[in-house]
Amino acid sequence: MKKTLAPSFIAAALMTTSFIAVSSDTKPGVIIYATGGTIAGSSTSNTDTTGYKAGSLGVDILIEAVPELKDVAIISGEQIANIGSSNVDQKTLLKLAKEINEKLKSDDTHGVVVTHGTDTLEETGFFLDLTVNSEKPVVMVGAMRPATAISADGPMNLLQAVSLAASDMANDRGTMIVLNDRIGSAFYTTKTNSTTLDTFMASDQGFLGTFIGSKPKFYFEPSTPVKKPTFDISKLDELPKVAILYSHQDQDVALLDMLVDKGAKGIVLAGNGNGSLSESVKTKVKELMENGVPVVRSTRTGSGFVTDKEEGIGSGYYNPQKSRILLTLALSENANMDQIREYFNSEV
Asked: Which residue numbers delimit the L-asparaginase N-terminal domain (predicted)?
């Protein structure tokens, strides 16, 4: 079948390392860091929204396909990776955070945009929210439909993300997530549906704002999540290994020992309800904690607060995947059990 490209994108090109769209020097500077994902995906069919190849288009193609970008900012692009987001690893995260921290020090950079696959977008966004030390905006953006699909959502999402990164109103809001005309805090926002456009949301905390066309509109003045931690990763070349284990009936306790034997320095359990576990698993968790292996108990329900636990550490508002990021960063600075418990702020 002959490949059909959506009008909003042009044919795939070889991946490039950098690209600059020249614009008026009176406009703010925005850097687009491209990592791949659906927003850069393509398929042989313009109705295919699940079987496409992620990370097919380079950052230059993404920028050229949305000429309106030059009307809102001086755009430069850098290709960090071109992969599906399930393949994003700690090396990619550290490289991205270090480069963003460095570039945001420049007066020429008003903000940055990271194009990313949606499957793990919230993890990268949360990592950047805890490790980028700047009042300037960092905006995560992706797409639920590939570039070749009818009504591909990537071009408008990208224009909105750049408009947000170029806006003074976006300062002091931490890392944000933009999809489907919504602005969310990366600290709270999560992916809630596998395929629909309205997948990203924070069920309890809500959105920060929305878009009217390409113009961002905020509901609130800038604010900071309660006890939001920050971490310095500038001297780190690797991160401690932390694993997530999904809880269920009749769970095999030996799996926890296996994770530790394979090098896990901490474990996150996606527990039932309010982080509930079987009695046998709780006994093992207590043993691991006494032996210096922190175990965080989150919830598999998708939302809600997990209270502090006698056996293990309650995750508070952090879902399993964000609990893993936070525990990894806490271990990277050799935090003790009390300090880790304080990071998760799970007391009520």
From this structure: 30-221
Q: What is the pTM of this model?
A: 0.91
Instruction: Return the closest-CA partner of residue 38 out of 183, 170, 197, 159.
Output: 197
Count up the domains in the chain and report the number. 2
Residues 27 and 158 reside in one and the same domain: yes
The verdict on 123 and 170 lying in the same domain is yes
Q: Where are the alpha helices (DSSP H) in the chain?
A: 59-64, 90-103, 121-131, 154-165, 254-261, 279-290, 320-332, 337-344
Residue 151 lies in a domain: yes
Return the closest-CA partner of residue 81 out of 70, 71, 91.
91
Residues with a catalytic annotation lie at: 38, 118
- Residue 115 in any domain: the answer is yes
User: Which DSSP state fits 287?
Assistant: H
Does 85 appear as a known binding residue?
yes
323 is annotated as contributing to ligand binding? no
pLDDT band at residue 199 under the 50/70/90 scheme: very high
- Do 254 and 295 lie in one domain? The reply is yes
| pLDDT recorded at residue 20 | 52
Burial per residue of 243-277, b for 16 or more beta-carbon CB atoms within 10 angstroms, e otherwise: bbbebeeebeeeebeebeeeebbbbbbbbbeebbb
**Residue 204, marked binder:** no
